[in-house]
Amino acid sequence: MTGVEPARRSLALPGPFRLKGGGRLPAVTLAYEAWGSPAAGSRPVLVLCTGLSPSAHAASSAADPSPGWWEPLIGTGRALDTDRFRIFCFNPLGGCFGSTGPSSIDPLTGERYGARFPEIAIEDIAAAIHRALGALGIGRVDAVVGPSMGGLVALALALHEPRAVRRLAVISAAAAAEPFAVAIRSLQREILSAHLGQEADRVRRGMRFARKLGLISYRSPVEWRTRFGRRRETDPAARTGRPAGSAPPFAVEWYLETRARDFAERFDPESYLRLSRAMDEFDAADPGGGDLERALAGAGLEAVLVAGVTTDLLYPSHQLESLARGFRGSGTPVELRIIDSPTGHDAFLADWVRFEEPLRKFLEF
Amino acid sequence: MTGVEPARRSLALPGPFRLKGGGRLPAVTLAYEAWGSPAAGSRPVLVLCTGLSPSAHAASSAADPSPGWWEPLIGTGRALDTDRFRIFCFNPLGGCFGSTGPSSIDPLTGERYGARFPEIAIEDIAAAIHRALGALGIGRVDAVVGPSMGGLVALALALHEPRAVRRLAVISAAAAAEPFAVAIRSLQREILSAHLGQEADRVRRGMRFARKLGLISYRSPVEWRTRFGRRRETDPAARTGRPAGSAPPFAVEWYLETRARDFAERFDPESYLRLSRAMDEFDAADPGGGDLERALAGAGLEAVLVAGVTTDLLYPSHQLESLARGFRGSGTPVELRIIDSPTGHDAFLADWVRFEEPLRKFLEF
Question: Cβ–Cβ of B316/A281 closer than 8 Å?
């Protein structure tokens, strides 16, 4: 599940690591990848925070030429220009692609943490990144970019580590989850939890169910109407498990099945539970005592980009507007870009081309 | 689960009853309720088709004064005026509130059908209603009104029983489900199916999961934002099952839990699977060989109302527009009403007041 990619580096942070929820970890390792010459000490530093699902492999490199999850936006001459920036992407604390998480070995017992792994908060993920940057000798980050959960982590990094960040880009994320997003993630966790502690096949089934519900919330009715319509799937494998004599599944059902199967093979269920819950609990207004403008003012940012799409079910455009308004009210220069795209929350991946110009412009400083 | 309400009547239809999917039922009983004097033979007849979840108890009566699921719209002087119409509401074939369904006794074995109950189609539900009307001596129906699944049944009744219906009101429904609605219902069925054949507690848990996902699709992010925000639930019972030391659940999570628990107690899982699948498979264009206008023209309707709301996730407004366009193209007079309401698909229940005027006007003939 956590086969080490050749480009992945590891950073051991001195412990213990105290968590917002009261737990503590005796030791923390963060996995990361880096692009742009690390020797070029004078170059500006860009930190990329990942969504819930991907690893730190955001882009290819000489050490690992396989395409990363934001490949088209990272590289020479691209929006996140590796000729201009030193770019770092960290796998989050609590994740399962190399950073300390539930699938790591607890040094106190010599066994995997599993369900005993403590609850983590978005602020903990940000604090671990902040300490890792310190260990790398980076005092202040010139730009932080984060899509989806990464947008929350980027916000937390800016708000909770004063003057750690100069410029912040929040992509397809918002100050706090609304009840619709909470309901969807809460149900994912409840269904998954009901499958844990059983044989591996059942655990994977729970992961498939949770992921299918996730996929429903990551895309949009508009995209699926065009992409699938009422088309049926003709692959004979797609017939498995349907009542005898029934019609073949709709193409959308088979799409969910193949995507969810793949995810269930590669993601740790306990990581999923913790990162998902952290997203629901996060509220950017917390450091302002519930006052968002005050919280945002505390970050002392030079510039902010808030960008997302019209069809995002998890972080709808009025939430982007409200975050941008908060920054404006706090006296921070902010650019709001609500992009017309049919591909929903996942547009930053599925329709990345529409994020290219806003990111390029934001990073021209 | 199927305690008989005093106003409920039963109609045994002569068998066998052949089903669209190839199955057959040796005998079919339909449960229904009626309002307005049945003796007044010259009064126009209105048939109300239910959504997936409710019983035939759409309104109170002398025999059963408990409020029905569409109480505010049915009665003396109300939009569905019991002084003007004889009104009949049928529990669907395949349901679990008195009509033949999976929880009924199979006369051939003396045991409940359960999982052996055949697949049913929306057209089968409509055909059973058509035969029941014949048995009641009603040759032609003056108006059929159906919300949600009832809208599909109403469409099927009009399209598959030529000249059986004069006027048709399709509420919060459309010609066929789009992939987003199919994905949500398909996942509900898959999760529920994984819990069947186990102890009763686990089956109920599967029903709770399926229903929670249903509730997410029945309401809207807009409503929940205002109603719940990020409020926490303080009821101590709401703490059950959460990780020790974690924050209390969000109000939206507890709302889903209490609503889903209630549903799991009263609805039959095998009924749920069949009615849900029937909704996905239905396509009003079928009798036109895939040509919707031709199919709709075949119904020979005098007037049609298509009404729904702006925030419906299952049957979004462009689908209402498309159904209305189909009727217009088929030469049928049609009124399209896209109502501004925050309460999503369930608006016909939660925000019934906005449907009063369109229904009243439609029924003034």
Answer: no
Q: Nearest CA to CA, how far is B306 from chain A (Å)?
A: 21
Buried b (16+ CB within 10 A) or exposed e, B125-156: bbbbbbbbbeeeebeebbbbbbbbbbbbbbbb
**Does A182 touch chain B if contact means CB atoms closer than 8 Å?**
yes
**Average confidence score pLDDT of chain A:** 94
- Could A182 and B250 be called an inter-chain contact, meaning their C-beta atoms sit closer than 8 Å? yes
Query: Is the separation of the CB atoms in B95 and B119 below 8 Å?
Result: no
Q: Tell me: the pLDDT tens digits for A281-308?
A: 999 999 999 999 999 999 999 999 999 9
Identify the band that residue B154 occupies on the pLDDT scale cut at 50, 70 and 90.
very high
- CA neighbor of B164 nearest in space, from B191, B117, B132, B189: B132
Q: Interface pTM (ipTM) of the complex?
A: 0.95
Does the structure show a pLDDT above 50 at B3? no
Distance between the two ends of chain A, CA-based, in angstroms?
40
pLDDT band, residue B1 (cuts 50/70/90): very low
- Does B264 contact A at CB distance below 8 Å? no
Give all domains of chain B, ordered by start, each with its CATH number. Answer: 9-177+282-362 (3.40.50.1820), 182-270 (1.10.1740.110)
Give the contacts of A22 (CB within 8 A, at least 6 positions apart). Answer: A118, B245
